[in-house]
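Weekly structure sync, notes
Attendees: PL (lead), two postdocs, one rotation student
Agenda item 3: pending single-chain targets
PL asked that the sequence for the first pending target be pasted directly into the notes so everyone works from the same version. It is reproduced below exactly as submitted, 39 residues in total.
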Amino acid sequence: MTELAALTWPEVPPAGPVLVVPVGSVEQHGPHLPLDTDT
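Predicted structure, written out during the meeting:
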């Protein structure tokens, strides 16, 4: 396994596809408030 901290960006071996799953907290306050009012 390669330690990435010891490499420069051209030396990093290519990886396969990356999946980014955005997650966060959304609390339900009802229809009178928009989403993300307290995050």
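Discussion points:
- The mean pLDDT is 77.
- The radius of gyration is 20 Å.
Action: rotation student to compare against the earlier draft before next sync.
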